[in-house]
Each structure stands twice: as C-alpha cells, then as structure tokens.
Amino acid sequence: MRTLRFLWVLGLLPPCYCRYFSGETFSEELVIRPLPDGKVASRFEFTTLLHGATPRNPQNLSVEDHSQHYTLFPLALGQILREYAVTELHLTLNAGKWNYDRWGYPEESDVATGASLWAWMAEGSGSASAANARHRVDARWRDLRNALAGLFCASIASLDEQRTTSPGRAFTPVGALPAWPASVQHAFRHASLPSENVCTENLTPFLKLLPCKSLSGLAHLLNPHRLFDADWHGMGLHVSWRPNEGVQVRLTFQSVSDPLRAGGNSRDWSLRLLFDRVVDRACPVAASSRIIVTLPTKELYSVHPEPSSVVDGRGAFDLSDQSFPLDLRLRWAEPFQHATVPSAEAPLSVRRMLRGSAQDHGALAISITNPDSDPVSVVYLETLPWIVYLYLSTLELSVGGVRRPDLLQDISYIAPVPHGRAATLEAFLSLPARSTVTLHIGVGRSFLRYTEHPPDAQRGWDLPGAVVALLPAASGNQSSATDSTNKGAMQEMKKWNQPQRIYTPALLVDPATPDFSMPYNVIIFTCSLIAFIFGSVFNGLTRRFVVLKSPE
Amino acid sequence: MFSRLLLLFLFSWIWGTLAATPSHEQIVGDFFNKNGASGGSTSNHTNNWAVLVCSSRYWFNYRHMANALGMYRTVKRLGIPDSNIILMLADDAACNARNRFPGSVYANPGRGLDLYGDNIEVDYRGYEVTVENFIRVLTGRMEPSVPRSKRLLSDASSNIFVYMTGHGGNEFLKFQDNEEISAFDIADAFEQMWQKKRYNEIFFMIDTCQANTMYSKFYSPNILATGSSKLDQNSYSYENDNDLGISVIDRFTHYVLEFMERINKTSHESMADLFAYYDPVKIHSDPGVRSDLFRRPLSEVRITDFLGGVAQVEVGEGVPVDSSAVAAAQEEDEWPLQGESPAVPPVLPVAEDTRERVGDLGGGWRGMRAWGGVLLIGGLVGWVGFRS
C-alpha cells in the first residue's frame, strides 16, 4: 500500500532529455560565404543558452550569490559575470582590415582592429561608503577588465580610464536590460585598444569555454596555424540576456581566408584546404550543429557532400545526418573572374585620413560615400585618445564641394582631458542619395610627458577606428537592407536586433618623440662640467708649484 | 628521601615521553627522507612554479622569444601546469606580420619543432612586460584586481624556476629597450620572497651577455644560479633560419634544451649533470654556476626538482579491484543516447587502510604512557595532601 502511494510521485518527474542538460542548450554553426574577389569568409558561432537565468542585480552585491552549477555554460565566464554584475558584455579581438568594398558587410558587424570591450552594467548602491566603493560601476569596470585580461591572455587591463568612453547612440544593447528600479540605471562603458595582437594564446582560452573544447564538433576546425594566416581574423564574445529565454553566451570566430595562398590552385575550397582539418565527429552535447554555405547563383559549381537543405541560396549541412569525417568541398566549373561587389549592392564606403605634416597640428578628414538611391541616416562616432584633440569650431561638412551644415545634427562632444580622458564625438549624419559627404576637422596633437611614451615610441600611437552605425529603425534604410549583397548579414541584423556598424581602419599618429638619451647626456655633461670647474678651482687653491733644484 | 626519588622518577618519565613524541616537522621530514634515503631526491618541496621572462621586443629578437618558449615547452612537458607558469613575452613573434609561418615559433634552423603549438597561455604580453610587473610578480605585491593567472601564488615549500633572457650587460638586463633591471633589484626581490616565505628553493637561469654578473649580488639562502657568460663576455646566437631570416635561438639555451630533451618526468639526472654538460667551446662563452647559497649538494638535486612538476608519492599496498566492476565501467563509456538515463558510475570497493600511519609509532603505547604519567601525578598529589 505504501509503495503504491508513492508511485504518483513518479508522474511528476519531467521526461529526461539528455541534450537538455539541466536548463542549458548548446548549439554551433559555421557559415561559409565565398567572396566576389575569390576569398572565402567563414564565421563560427557557438551559442550556449542558460535557461531562466537573469543577470545579477548589483544592489545585491554585498549579499552572497547563489552557487553556480553549470554543465555546458562556461564556469569561468559565469563567475566573472556574476562577480561584477554584468548585464551585457561584448569583447572582440580582431586583426587586419576588413575591406568593405570587396567583401561587403561581415556576418559579425564588430570588426574594429585590436581589442574592443563594451558592457552594460547597472549602478551599484549609490552611497559613498568604503565597502560600496567596490560596487560602483567604474570599480567593477576596472575589475571586469582585469578579470577578462586574465581569462583571455590579452592586455585588456590597459583599457583604463584614458581609453574608456560612454557613447550613447552608436551602441545599443543586443538583448534586454532588466527592468530594475529607476535608481539602478544601466551605465555603458566602451574601450578599445587598436594595437593589440591576437594570437594562439587568445584562442586557447576561447576554446576552453566551449563544452566540447576543440576535440569534436565544429570547434575542431579552429586550427590556429591557418586561422592566424588569414587575411582577416577576429574572435568575439557576446553575452546578453533574452527576457523569455535566459542568459546567452555567443562565442564567434570570423576569418577571411585565401584559398590561393592556402595551397590551392584556384578559388575552389574545402575544409581541408581552409583549416587543414576536417570534422571528425559531432559534438555530443550540441543541440544543433550546422554548416551553412552560400552557394553561387550565377556560376556552375559542384558541392560535395550534398546539403541537407537549400534555403534562399544557402545550403545547410546538418551534422546529425552527415557521415564523418566530413570534408566540405566547393568547386567551380569555370575559371575565376575577378569581381567586386556590384555598385548597386555596395555598402557605405567610409574613409578616414589624418592630414598634415606638422607634428603639433593637422586635420582629420572623413569621407562617406552612399551608393544607394535613397538617403541614409547614420550615427557617426569618433573616440580619440587625448593625444589628439579636435578643434570643434573648424568642423566642416561638404557634399561635392558645397557646404551643407544641415546634414549634421545633434552633435555630442566630450572634450578630452590631457593625461586623463579620451575625446568622444557623436553626431547624427544624413547622407543624401548617391553622394559623397566629407567631414573635415582641425586637430591638435598633445605633448606627451617623457614617461608616457610606450617602449617603441617611434612607431606612434594607434587611433581607434571611427564607427558609422546604420540605424535599422529609420524607414530610409529599409531599401538598403534588402538590396545588400550580404543577405546573411542583414538577417543577422534582424535576428539580433542590432544596428550594422561600419568601422574604419585604425590610424597611426606620431607625436613628437623626445631624444630619450637626453637625460643621460645632461647628467654626463653636467657632471663633467662640475668636475672641471671644481677640479680647477680646488687645484688652483690648494696646489702650490715649488721650484726644486736638481742635485747636480 | 623516598619522595625525592619518586619526584626524580616522575620528571625523567615525563621528559622521556615528551622527547620520544615525534614533532610535526619530524613526521614530514621522515616522509620526504624515506624517498631520499633510497637514492632519490633530497628535496622537500611540494609544488613547482616557473617564471619565464623574455624581455626584448622587435622581430630581430625572435631568438629571445624562442628561448623563453623553449623553456616553456620543457617545463610543461615535465609536468608543471599552465596555472603554475608565468610566461612573459615582450613581443608577439608567432603572429607577427613578418612571420612567414603564422602561429609558429621555431627554435632550430630546419623548423622541426613548433614551440607555440595549439595550447599556450602567455600571462604578460607586450607592454605589460615591465620591470615593475616582474618585481610585483616575484614579491606578490599587486593590486587586488590582478587575476590569478598573473600571480605567483607560491608558498614556503615551492620550488621556483626563474628564467630570464634578453639583452643585458654588467649587472643589468634591458627590458624592452626602455628600462633596466639591475642585479641588486633581483637580489632584493628574492630577499623579500625569503622574508615572506614565498619559496623553498629557487633555480635562477639567465641567458644574456655578461649573464653571470646578474647573480653575483644574491644574498638569500637556497638559491642556485647559472648564467651563460661571464663578465666582459657576450653570449652568442646559435644559427639563422634562411626562411625566417633571423637567428632562432641562443647557444646557451640551445645546449640546455638539448640536455633537457633527454629528461622526462621520471629521470634522476641531477643539476651536477647539467652543469657538467656545459661546454664553453661549443657555447662560445663561459657559463657559470653559483651554488654557495644552496644548501644541498648539486649531485643530489634533480632536474625535475625545479623544471618538473613531480610530486612525492608514497605508494601503498595494492587495493583489490573488482574486475567485473571495471568491465562494466568500460562498457558504459559512450555518451548516453537520447531517452536513456545517464549512467551511474560503478563504485569500486574500498579496501581497508591497512598501512600504519607514519609517525604513529604504536600510538596505543604512547597513550598508555601519557595516562600513566597523569595517574602518577594524581597519586603524588593525593599522597602529599593526605599525609600527616
């Protein structure tokens, strides 16, 4: 009787789905897109979703947090996120220059050179007591940078307050910000370091955040010897909160490889050629594991093996119904014809130059070309370290030689503080149809102190790229969205609800460098002078010359 | 008269009991010496750390980065994990734009062995490699927000291997062509470490010009030091690689790594063997050794005491294993398919712990003696109290 009574408890047990590990889902995807100029762009995406989780409220930072038990979600990252109460976090480590004219829009729009880190963190308790000073946003931002620097073996810790800015409009959260009371406003911090190198030591911890590491699944293709040989490569970490789903961690790796340089004789590519590896087996804990290839539309080609499905010109290969080892191959029937992105589908083209040959002043010139038949509104963001300061009164906007100050609205400028704070310039720009808009600003260059120069001072300082953010909500941009050659990028834009951002390459500015041997020279010269003077006076006063008669 | 005899007997009994009780230090020492007495190492460290510093930047100092990476690969191969290695590289050679073989650093002209590999963690890179950070790593005096991977979390029983390479001179080493660290700075840092009990023994190796001058100023105990060349002597590079276009390794480090290739985790080679392997004719300079601060004889110091992560292990009697349980565990090795319940790992039977605990020395007898002493004192007090 007793055993029967307890049998009803079994009915309450939910069915156990082994891939649904205690509220976490992991899925992976590889998108490969052949580019018009013969190169191949690939994007790996590894998504781990922690169901039902919410970001930590910084008001509760003094209360001990609940213990974290994850199966697939990376614990090292989870600890950092909860320790510093981070709501949304984006970190990118890129190397190279993304050529928008030839390659179109990237799948992941954040292609700034070097290291970039931006995060949304809510204010901690506002009181000024010592215990709560650690809970303020700036203290948590500093600790977050140090923790990520240790996790990713990158110099993110040097993104200090001299490189941190808070632009308000170019960056919008990808996920949602929890609706905490109004006293707990979210603050936004952004910092970038264009001179950061990306190498295998950054990829090693990246792979350790994945459930299957690099042993199985698509992560096995991440071969550092090939990835860091690419024309452009970048890795990204994106943490966001989806209100109905939970906390999502997206690890991405994008690269643009050249099949010709990788050993092939033509632009035919295969996984073996691009990555020197093939997919040996599927990751057992992945809920979905897919490779998506953009198939050529105007040329004859052959792809092996056959895709599981073809949707909208993109073939999808689901690893659950492929045979292993899987080596995807795409071959063209005809020889290669070099092409660039057709002008009807070309993205905005942005160029930025630093003019002037003097070492204390110059000019910053930006030209944006809109090839579309519709006007476009963008947010233009410039964050410059304090060594370069803008003379806002010399700001000029012209289209085809004609001054058009009406196109620039709502300028927000935070002036730099020498040796203290970076400059932020943000403005709304309206770009007329089929035109080139040129911005021209006078700049001055600061004089650095002797100890502020980096060890390789003669190289100069890197200026982070300008950000031109297309606003998807504006009606004027809808047509450009559908005409874009990169349907995948536009789908990404809609999927993650973020604006497409265009980054200009980093500029190099060389401030006046002193002669670093001068302190040594001055010390030596002064000491010699003092020795001569003192020695002569001393000898003159104390030495007597006496004539001696030789005993002959 | 009788009472005096009794008191004398009491005191000698108590003193004998106390003297016969082995102290904690003796228990630990016995454990380590057990292995040492049988011809093994006489070291009493419990963990190993390595601090590997390459202090030069720029592409033409590729060989210094290869030096440090060669040592990194050796200490990893011999068992020190990444969490116990602090690797400082002042520049990026593997992903440098000038590197024809991206993601790889080679240390021999034929490019046989890639030192960078697929699994490497560089703790301090680029502009972070400064004299200040190096001394902070050694002394442990850092901001609270510095992450764990950048800290030297050593304790009083850690053996630390400190390797430095770069351009140097008479009692100084250049960091990134911008600043210098002097032999006095390193000596003072080691003394701070000694005062704060941050090391058991240090093995200091340096490969620069006039390297032996760098260890001439040490004054803390338990430091063994070796350098690649003496005062007024340069240290030379080994060979160029024609495809990379620069020298790939220095002579001293090359011959040290050549010696290390013969070592694995179970080797018994000693420091005396390493120092005997030095050949000034091949190295083109006179390497030196400083062992006056080191209390153990060099023939008893194993290479793996410093470069390896080898732990002292006491092997007990075999635990009988249920072979059917092992077979069942092997069958259930594959991941459960959808719909099946997760496998429960089999529980192996635990044998009784039949070894005698070290230092127990017949604990029952000691307890009896202690109680006997208490009863004796109680009896004496009672006799004195109820006398007269």
UniProtKB/TrEMBL annotation, chain A:
Q: Among the entry's GO cellular component annotations, what is one? A: GPI-anchor transamidase complex
Q: Which residues form the signal peptide?
A: 1-18
Where does the chain cross the membrane? Answer: 520-541
Recorded hits in InterPro entries, A to Z, give: PIG-T (IPR007245)
What is an example of a Pfam family matching this protein?
A: Gpi16
Give the UniProt keywords, A-Z. Answer: Membrane, Signal, Transmembrane, Transmembrane helix
**A biological process term (GO) from this entry:** attachment of GPI anchor to protein
Q: Which residue windows are coiled coil?
A: none
Q: Under which name does UniProt file this protein? A: GPI transamidase component GPI16
Q: Lineage from the top down?
A: Eukaryota, Fungi, Dikarya, Basidiomycota, Agaricomycotina
Automatic annotation (TrEMBL), chain B:
Name recorded for this polypeptide: GPI-anchor transamidase
Q: Active-site residues?
A: H167, C209 (nucleophile)
Q: Which InterPro entries does the annotation name? A: GPI_transamidase (IPR028361), Peptidase_C13 (IPR001096)
List GO terms (cellular component aspect).
GPI-anchor transamidase complex
Q: Which pathway features in its UniProt record? A: Glycolipid biosynthesis; glycosylphosphatidylinositol-anchor biosynthesis
Q: Which PANTHER family match?
A: GPI-ANCHOR TRANSAMIDASE (PTHR48067)
- Identify the keywords attached in UniProt to this record, alphabetized: GPI-anchor biosynthesis, Membrane, Signal, Transmembrane, Transmembrane helix
- Similarity remark: Belongs to the peptidase C13 family.
List the taxonomic lineage. Eukaryota, Fungi, Dikarya, Basidiomycota, Agaricomycotina
GO aspect biological process, one term: GPI anchor biosynthetic process
Give the Gene Ontology MF terms in alphabetical order: GPI-anchor transamidase activity
Signal peptide per UniProt: 1-19
Membrane-crossing residues?
A: 368-386
Q: Which Pfam families match?
A: Peptidase_C13 (PF01650)
